């Protein structure tokens, strides 16, 4: 039985770009078998960052998270494949790169701090649709 094709929004966050992990992250996506549908290296406006992380608006780290995401260029991608949303979350590893992300995952291999965890991936079909509309309105 083949799984339904899905799309997910991936961000290589400013820490991942600054540390030179763009190629590494894309290579892992491709090696998993996921396709690249769109990709853009860009600076992020405060408005887009706030909208992207709107679910965290009441959290104490929201301001610092928005500052971080807008603080330098990032790479936004849309990826596609069977169970792409869960597949990329598996590649990324858990949010806390030390306590939750296993070695072998992007966060487990390359990050130490919760905020500076290299990548974002949509967490559900609803989030993916919302986030792809926000980052790639012409897609
Ligand atoms: P993301 O949305 O970026 O893919 O990460 P996630 O689902 O694994 O984690 P989420 O709970 O949605 O948190 C979003 C991002 O906020 C930063 N964060 N900082 N200082 C903190 O306690 C804290 N908690 C979360 C991280 O950059 C996290 O990825
Ligand atoms: Mg999240």
TrEMBL record:
It holds the Pfam family NDK. Major role in the synthesis of nucleoside triphosphates other than ATP. The ATP gamma phosphate is transferred to the NDP beta phosphate via a ping-pong mechanism, using a phosphorylated active-site intermediate. Belongs to the NDK family. The keyword Chaperone does not apply. Keywords: ATP-binding, Cytoplasm, Kinase, Magnesium, Metal-binding, Nucleotide metabolism, Nucleotide-binding, Phosphoprotein, Transferase. InterPro entries: NDK-like_dom, NDK-like_dom_sf, Nucleoside_diP_kinase. The active site is at residue 120. This is Nucleoside diphosphate kinase. ATP binds at residues 13, 61, 89, 95, 107, 117. Its EC number is 2.7.4.6. Signal peptide: none annotated. Homotetramer. GO terms for cellular component: cytoplasm. Its main location: cytoplasm. GO terms for molecular function: ATP binding; metal ion binding; nucleoside diphosphate kinase activity. The gene is ndk. It is found in: Cytoplasm. NCBIfam families: PRK00668.1 (NF001908). GO terms for biological process: CTP biosynthetic process; GTP biosynthetic process; UTP biosynthetic process. Residues 5-139 form the Nucleoside diphosphate kinase-like domain.
